[in-house]
Design brief:
about 500 residues; 20 helices; mainly alpha
Length: about 500
């Protein structure tokens, strides 16, 4: 392996490890929230974070990708950075100012007049996080993975610390009479939703302070002639990002309105169980960090390698699907009794996120052939279908309807990408073999979840045996697939 590839692999590991550790730590806040917040409060938290995910993409409007594309392409990197960071400063600052005036009207329209202060904190978080997106991108461009990962982990650590401080330590001090009088009165003026987003806002401010040297120590000038080509390039990327975030989060935005009666409490149950399904997302994200650079090394000689990677990806994704669903009662220790009722969505969410991972693999064809605009069309199809099915299914099926809407959206994106990609950039994928994997996984899933075995020990033993048999089947198929499974053109 060359020195540059070793360096690339090392940096990929740092970026991937820091991102995965960060997401895992954030994931661990869910068991904490469902034990410290009411179901209504946690439902509002899930709803707010879904809105944040969509708005954050809009407020950065694809400038990170534009910055990568144009730095060194006839423009001085310092100049393009200062120009874009100045633009982000104006829009992010204006957005925070807008929140100062709109937090109460938004509260009145969507939240029955509640959570106005938390809504302003959402604006504040979005302002800081959108502004700091470009400094983080510059750290990546300048090959500073350690600093990038360190600041990201400090951000998450600070968020966790402030959550524990406001939601655990202060109530403990109040209950044991260590805090009295005005301090208690001030604390009880706000609910758990406020303290969750106060914690996030403080961690975002800390991140901003840590990045100040990378924001203001730029001696170059602002060059507004840069903006037009960057924006022209970045807007399609923005559209892809928006449709992707809508597909992932529209369920958590629409559910309270579609269910109406105790909508936020139902959303809380959905959101907590969805978090368990996100274990599949952690796998797909890790895969992306590890293999994305590999995909772009060679367009032609790599085709067989792409097919091999897809083979392993699908099988290991199914291992995660079975590992979670077969031993769900063990994983349920992170939930409380009222949240376990939402377990029905977990297999659907896991499968949906696996399809999204397959779609990500398939999407290489339009990236490698410079037809990224097609990705925007796929994203629009997925987002439109997911919204439509949420509106149709949730009133009939409740939160399960949202899970099926997500599954359908990602499945259609995956299917359309495979069909069109086969025309423009044929890769020797083996769909028949993948179908066999899914069929075997389906048999193991239904055997493990529907067959009643007397005694907990024998039940676990049975599940472990069929789980091991599924894993063993992969090696058998891999050994004989050239002879037993026909490969399509």
């Amino acid at each position: 392996m060359s020195l540059s590839l070793k360096k690339l692999a090392g940096e990929t590991m740092i970026y991937g490890a820091s991102t995965m550790l960060g997401r895992l730590l954030n994931w661990l806040l869910m068991p904490f929230y469902i034990r410290t917040l009411t179901t209504y409060e946690y439902g509002v938290v899930v709803n707010f974070y879904a809105v944040i995910s969509v708005l954050l993409v809009i407020l950065t409007y694809g400038l990170e990708t534009g910055f990568f594309r144009f730095s060194g392409k006839g423009y001085h990197e310092n100049s393009i950075y200062k120009t874009l960071i100045s633009l982000l400063g104006i829009t992010s600052g204006g957005f925070v100012l807008l929140g100062f005036f709109l937090n109460q009207p938004i509260s009145d329209i969507f939240y029955s007049g509640e959570h106005a202060n938390a809504i302003f904190l959402v604006f504040l978080i979005l302002g800081f996080d959108s502004f700091t997106a470009l400094p983080f991108a510059r750290l990546r461009l300048n090959n500073r993975p350690v600093k990038f990962g360190t600041i990201k982990l400090i951000n998450i650590g600070a968020n966790i610390f402030f959550n524990l401080f406001f939601l655990l330590l202060i109530p403990y001090l109040i209950n044991h009479n260590f805090l009295k009088g005005n301090w208690v009165e001030v604390y009880h003026r706000f609910d758990g939703v406020f303290y969750v987003f106060l914690s996030n806002a403080l961690s975002s401010i800390i991140t901003f302070l840590l990045l100040i040297p990378h924001i203001f120590r730029i001696t170059s000038h602002v060059d507004f002639s840069i903006l037009k080509p960057v924006m022209v390039y970045s807007l399609p990327v923005l559209f892809v990002g928006i449709t992707g975030m809508i597909t992932q989060n529209i369920d958590k935005i629409l559910l309270p309105a579609l269910i109406k009666k105790e909508g936020f409490s139902e959303l809380a149950i959905y959101g907590a169980n969805f978090k368990i399904g996100v274990l599949m997302s952690l796998f797909t994200q890790s895969f992306r960090f590890a293999f994305e650079p590999f995909f772009f090394k060679n367009k032609e000689k790599g085709k067989q390698s792409y097919a091999t990677v897809m083979d392993y990806f699908i099988f290991f994704g199914l291992i995660i699907f079975l590992g979670v669903t077969l031993f769900l009662d063990v994983i349920n220790i992170v939930l409380t009794r009222e949240y376990i009722a939402g377990n029905t969505i977990i297999p659907v969410v896991l499968l949906a996120l696996l399809f999204y991972g397959i779609y990500f693999n398939l999407s290489l064809w339009y990236k490698l052939t410079d037809k990224t605009w097609i990705g925007a069309i796929f994203g629009a199809i997925g987002a439109g279908l997911t919204i439509l099915l949420n509106i149709m299914l949730v009133p009939q099926l409740g939160v399960l309807g949202s899970a099926f809407a997500l599954l359908a959206g990602y499945f259609v994106m995956m299917l359309v990408s495979w069909i069109i990609g086969h025309k423009y950039y044929p890769v020797p994928y083996q769909p028949l073999k993948y179908l066999i994997y899914f069929m075997l996984a389906g048999i193991v899933f239904f055997a493990g979840t529907k067959v009643n075995i007397e005694g907990q020990f024998f039940s676990y033993l049975f599940k472990a045996v069929i789980f091991a048999l599924f894993i063993g089947s992969f090696f058998v198929i891999k050994r004989y697939d050239k002879d037993k499974i026909s490969q399509p053109e």
